[in-house]
Amino acid sequence: MKLGELEKLVLQYLWQNDSADVKQVFGHFEKTRGGSLNTIQSTLDRLYKKDLLTRHKEGHAFVYQAKVERHELIGQLIKSVTSDFITEDDSSLVAAFSSISKEFNEEQLLKLESLIEQQRLKLGQESK
Fold this sequence. Notes:
The structure is a single chain. The protein has 128 residues and is mostly helical. It is built from six helices and three strands; from the N terminus they run αβααββααα. It has a three-stranded antiparallel sheet. Strand 2 (53-58) and strand 3 form a beta hairpin. Helix 1 packs across helix 3 and helix 2 (22-32) crosses helix 3. It is elongated.
């Protein structure tokens, strides 16, 4: 899955603001980035069609919400990029992740250890 710059910015906005209609999103980006209402509407529609947003009608307007959490989307994007290069028995992804972990601070490393331990526990429960 590929995301354009405006799509990424709109997702960031919705993660920070929970939900918004096209006019609210446009109002935010009009000040910081410019562009037209139609461009924002098209971007929201593309994200909805990519299954990254949900929407429901309120009056005459759709209200959009992010369908995936930020960390889930990052995981999907990593998987998408790496799937072309990694075979099932290849440990390149783990090695690559390890190589970027040197940029993590102590708190991030502790969080990573905790998430890995949670995943181990889930795998152990599923195998029973």
